[in-house]
Amino acid sequence: MKIAALYRYPVKSLGAQELAEVAVTPRGLAADRRWLVTNPQGRFVTRRELSGMALIGAEHEDGVLILRDNQGAALRVAEPVADTAPQTVTVWRDPVAALPAGHDADDWLSERLGRPLRLFHMPDASHRAVDPDYGAAGDEVSFADGFPLLITTTASLAALNARLDDPVEMARFRPNIVLDGVDEAFAEDGWRALQIGGLRLRVVKPCTRCVVTTQHPLTGESLGNEPLRTLKAMGRVWERQPIFGQNAIPDGAGRIAVGDAVAVL
After folding, report:
1. Residue among 16, 92, 18 at smallest CA distance from 48
2. Which alpha helices (DSSP H) does the chain contain, by range?
3. For residue range 172-194, what is the model confidence (pLDDT) as tens digits?
4. DSSP 8-state symbol, 80
5. pTM across the whole model
6. For the chain, which domains are there?
7. Which of 2, 7, 101, 246 could be joined to 105 by an S-S link, Cβ 3.0–4.6 Å?
8. Quick one: DSSP state of residue 146?
9. DSSP type of residue 85
């Protein structure tokens, strides 16, 4: 079993950045979802309510966030300086201290997405705990929905696509780590830990899926009710919600790359 692909999402709900290798931190892949789009009141905004966010690409390079719209216009956003006054933003029910990116970034996003928006960065000094029902004391997460890492497998995607009239791509599920060479579809249901080089990952909870999986990953266009309907029909359900992939928490830090061998512990 090996890593087939790596992705991070520098801004929650904006475009993916494919990587050949990346550092892993206790919060997940380095620079993954450390930026957040909010409404003027500081509540998080995602593609669940604003599907046009799919049209904005995001990359992190040398400490700078690069936003790019579907017309090719780009904006470079530096991480706010340390003495910027933090503000409280909300992700689900979690209040999080974050630093505002500034008016230029707010205006750029607002103009392209058609509503007043703000952009914030999570500094290292800000901490957001993982749900204690699934994590250990000290486990933390970025602006991701709930966990540092999302792992999927090509075998599970193939099993799902075998049931669909129109196959879906892995991008629908916005994983961080895609694994190839897994012997059985949905074998990840039975995993409790993985080893990648010197890095150990705890596999803690199936990932429940939402309407974002029914949208085109690059345009946000609604494509119907698949794959959610078929996942339910296959019995891929957790607490009455369709599931695909597994959430994981790193034990420490390390570096991983496409092609790395992965062992089930």
Report:
1. 92
2. 103-113, 154-161, 228-233
3. 999 999 999 999 999 999 999 99
4. P
5. 0.97
6. 2-27+131-264 (2.40.33.20), 29-121 (no CATH)
7. 101
8. S
9. P
